[in-house]
Amino acid sequence: MDLVLLTTFTALLFLLIAAAEPVADRLSLPYSVILAALGILIGGGAIFLLRTELTDALNPVAEAILALPIRANVFLYVFLPTLIFQATLEMNVRRMLDDWVPILTLAVVAVVVATLTIGYTLAWVSGLPLMVCLLVGSIVSTTDPSAVVSIFRSISAPKRLARIIEGESLLNDAAAIALFGLFMGFVMLGVPNPSLGEALGGFPQLILGGAAVGWAVARIALMLMGMFHRFELAQISVSVAAPYLAYIGAERLAGASGVIAVVAAGITLNLMGPGRLAPAFWVNLREVWRLLAHWAGALIFILAALLIPRLMGDLRAGDLGLVVVVVLAAFAARAIILFLLLPLLTGLRLSPKIERPYRIAIMWGGLRGAVTLALALAVTESLRVPVETKRLVGILATGFTLFTLIVQGTTLRYVISLLGLDKLSPLDRALSNQVVAVALQTVREEVSSTTEKYDLTRETVRSEAKRFAARLDAAVERAEAEDNAEILDRDRITLGLIALAGHEREVILQRFRERAISARLSEQALFDADRLIEGARQGGRVGYQRAARSALSYGPSFRLAAFLRNRLGISGPLARMTADRFEMLLAKRLILRDLHGFIDRRIRRIHGRRVAELLHELLNRRIEAADTALEGLRLQYPGYAEELERRFIRRTALRLEEREYAAMREDGLIGSEVHTELMSDIAQRRAATELRPRLDLAMRRNELARTLPLFADLDEPELKRLSRQMRTRYVNAGQVIVRKDTSSRSVYFVASGAVEQEVAGQTTRLGRGEMFGQMGVLTRRVRRAEVRAIVPTTLLILDEDGFRRVLKRSAALRRAVRDSIAAGSADVLRLPELMIDAPEPAKIEPAKTEPAKPETPPAAPPAPEPPAPKPDEPPLAEMASAAPDAPEQQEAREPKPLGARVRRG
User: Fold this and answer.
1) What residue stretch is flagged as signal peptide (predicted)?
2) Cβ–Cβ under 8 Å, residues 494 and 557
């Protein structure tokens, strides 16, 4: 094909891509449907021009269009890696982990179910070989969610729903293409009906091999991008090469799935890139990939649609019936997943609930598109596939794609409207009326001040003010209507919490743009803010508080990192996660304190004083919890928080300095040469501040122990020895530390946070510097107490031998133990460790009698002397006070309450 003609046609395609989006918006149709229609018109028009006798002038153009080098490998090796890699970079992987059950169900389980349902149904109806039917099922199982996602976003559907669909589509393509490669191999080998186990036996190898190749390529790419950190274009070039190397390496070298390799490479870069690359570069990188994916997605749709007239050229009457069978089987498989399996997982609490209207929209929005056509084209191009098989696969895949685009795509918005998903709820409508009224009042004040400032014509101001006042009166009337009385305080609190979390998200983005926080921490903070929004939507105040506590808790990965450090000596993961937690808590504390002003400026005017005061209280609780968690880390690693604060001040100073230089350049005070030199100097200093100080993970238990009053009288050698015997344990709020009826082998000291102890129906709270578990260790009895953390808590744990040894050396610890069992049993008080500095028990002396004087009459006989106490028998007073208590009473006296509230249950 002539190069000039090919270039001209490519330029015209880009013009069509540019025009497709506004046309789709004008016609209220999905963007992909317009692209497919353009492709079909171009391909069909070219065939018509060649076959018609009306004119021959356009035959060269038609021949050039039909001769375009459109092959399946162009789609699979050029466009597909770009689309998949960009999707993984845009994913919020942490948020998708919350919905991993429905995502994997729709992506993997649904693909397998759809492939088997379509394959067996088609084989039963048509009599075709089972392997050919399964191949058709794998081809039509891929979905294009762009249409339904774009519509959901336009109607402000829940973000979780759009996230589930996006995650499904990404993994859906990977699973379907892996199955396609598996069945395609059997078809080319001429194996018509292998066993199902034989057919699926190679599936794990495709998945695991692709994941390994993608991870390795991403790590190498990150290493190269780190080496080129001063050259942004070089870093972007490395990122462009990564998905193609992963795809080709998996397909050609490892015999695995190239799509899985690209997914693994993108997820690895998504998780590790923000922490290793500059924040500004990470933003630019994602913008570049967003543009590349837009072009690739549009081109693959148009070019694939060009082939539809060619693929449907040999259509026969009986083929339409088979297309109907494929459509019905696909809908049946989708319905099984959405209306049977997902509700079952929700009932088992393995998946969040998805409302029925949204499930119907997901089912009807499962459009097929470019990937389905590309896989069908790959079958038709294979020389090792029988001709009749190629014809049937091409017609069935193309016919099913046309049905989804023409029927489902054009009616999707109507179905969503019919389900009521595009309508505001009564609560949202009432809130909207109040928001409009408040906003217009503010606008009136600002417009009035503006007109006075510019001294506008009085008649013009008066006429416009009259029009605006009419609009304002109508808005106030709607806001004060009886329908708006449905907004209860509970609903106002929920709406206020959603608005507060949304503003928190905006503050996080602003801090990231100002480089006050890194890209990785900003993603984690945005993840927490999204969970706050969804928690408030689903559970109101309780859901919001639950999400806030979850943001400060130690997750499974943190506990795994602590296990690796304590048991295997691998300290890298724990050091990195602890440093991240330090930085996140500092940033969170600053962000939360900025939210009080938003409550007073905005929420108070819309929802009233009571709601605003409650939000202030909830926000103060979050700040207090963040301070408590940060204090625990300060105690564990003193000095590191100060280094992070210094780094924050330096980065803020650089940002302000950069702003000043930009203002001076705009004012003409400095020229471009001077400004460039100053920016280069700032860039060098900023590169130094981007490096986070290294966290010394050596557990400073001796310094932590020194802060506890119980060990205040120990000397330095003894503290060091004690620190070597102690273990550190982090626990989340609500986590059970000690359970009832378990053996007592350790004593726990609260280094930071607070715990709650329940013994014999009594609840006692213990704070920093207190201990629990000592009575069980000293008496060697089964525990009768259950202890759980109230907030994220840091504990120091000492085993029985270490506790008894330090008890002999610490007078303060002995006093604390004796106070906790002041009315306890005598056998505990007489332990050698507790008797070191105990006061000597008072001895009872025998009564002394004076000898009778001779001149006086004899006195009455003296009373018998009380028997002297035996050496191994305690005095009576001590025995009376040492009567043994019941085990429950003994445990109840183990900790000493610090003025805490006691509940009886």
Assistant:
1) none
2) no
**Chain center to CA of 164:** 13
Single pTM value for the model: 0.64
User: Quick check: 412 and 151 in contact, CB under 8 A?
Assistant: yes
Starting at the edge strand that comes first in sequence, how are the strands of the sheet with 762-766 ordered?
736-738, 785-789, 755-759, 762-766, 903-904
Task: Provide the CA 854 distance to its chain's centre, in angstroms.
Answer: 103
For the chain, which residues make up each domain, given as ranges?
3-67, 72-419, 425-487, 488-636, 647-690, 701-821
Segment holding 758, helix H or strand E: strand 755-759
Backbone angles phi, psi at 831, to 5 degrees: -60, 145
> Please, how many CA atoms are within 13 Å of residue 304, restricted to the half-sphere of its CB?
33
Domain 701-821 class in CATH:
mainly beta
d(CA 316, CA 314): 6
Residue 184 phi/psi, 5-degree rounding, is -65, -35
pLDDT score of 245: 93
> How do residues 56-114 score in pLDDT, each as one tens digit?
666 777 777 777 777 777 777 888 888 888 878 877 776 677 677 778 787 788 888 88
Around 823, how many Cα atoms within 13 Å sit in the side-chain half-sphere?
10
Task: For residue 571, give both structure tokens.
Answer: 């300290």
β pairing state of 793-799 and 771-772? unpaired
Quickly name the fold that domain 72-419 has. Answer: Na+/H+ antiporter like fold (1.20.1530)
Please tell me the number of Cα atoms within 13 Å of 443 on its side-chain side. 12
- Residue 10 has phi, psi (to 5 degrees) of -65, -40
